[in-house]
Amino acid sequence: MSEPASSPLIYPHPAPPPAGALIEVAPGVHWLRMPLPFALNHINLWALEDDNGWCLIDTGYGTDTTLAIWQQLFDGPLSGRPVTRIIVTHYHPDHVGSAAWLVDRWRAEFWMTEAEFLTAHAMRAGIPPFAVATAQAHFRRHGLDEERLKAQETRGNAYCLGVPALPNAYRRMIDGDVLTIGNRTWRVRTAFGHAPEHATLYCEALGVLISGDQILPKITTNVGVWANQPDGNPLKLFLDSFDRFAPLPENTLVLPSHGLVFTGMHTRIRQLHDHHEARLAELVATLDAPRTAAELLPTLFPRPLDDHQLMFAMGEIIAHLNFLMHAGSAYRETDADGQIRYIRLI
What we know:
Layout: E1 23-26, E2 29-35, E3 42-50, E4 53-57, H1 64-75, E5 83-87, H2 93-96, H3 99-106, E6 109-113, H4 114-125, H5 132-141, H6 146-155, H7 159-162, E7 171-173, E8 178-181, E9 184-191, E10 198-203, E11 208-212, H8 234-241, E12 253-256, H9 265-286, H10 297-300, H11 307-326, E13 330-334, E14 340-344
Parallel strand pairs: 4-5, 5-6, 6-7, 11-12
Antiparallel strand pairs: 1-2, 2-3, 3-4, 8-9, 9-10, 10-11, 13-14
């Protein structure tokens, strides 16, 4: 979901690094980028100088294209030092997809938070709370038609497309942990809503925040309600997580997973709060009669959606509706067929 074009954020690097190249954005902190095979067509990754090796933050989608670019980097700008440590911010395929290949290649340590590590394995295994049939039933209750549900079934376990394998062991990160990478310390700050236990990393000495998907400069992070937590309120968790970054200076250099490196973090956080408040107001205005999440898709997503985008759009609509329900601005009713509809409280 795009934000208005006018933005007061400052972008110190007007263009990203080309494939197979690095940009040093702070002493010992290097930016690289990998392609993605869908509408959000890239992910930013980070290589931190770690004594005599490299610490990699996130890994890219697990495809031959990504692995070829990694090899190009290892033969070029990353050559001469081994990868000693791999840190993954959260379980989504563009972040963890190449982790197993990298861990096996370098015999590197693998770091994640516990909830993200376990969710990654649950998603890849397709255990019942994360199975395709469970997701279909969830979206069917929220009004998605059978034709589009069938398309989701045809895709199968799409998680495996981007995550061909996962490491079977990890080093656990917990909120507040301090990691020494090279000669600098980085503090783990976890955030919630977009993922179960999303890790960000802040280095006070450099004034740098590796924000993952929590703070993005040009698009809003997807926040969805999924079948494993149908009554959840992830949008509140996501918005409340911004409070964890309140002590950081406004001139903190933010390294996001998508878009350009920027400063103006608190300005951007205010924009994101305003954005979601506006979307919630739009939804409330439509709830003069009971409506399903699927009926409300055009309210927040007026453009055509492909099968990949549709899943995230449905999750996000339900997240906004559940937010209104938990806030007492709307209530939810379920008919005899199990169909869920929302209506605002007068």
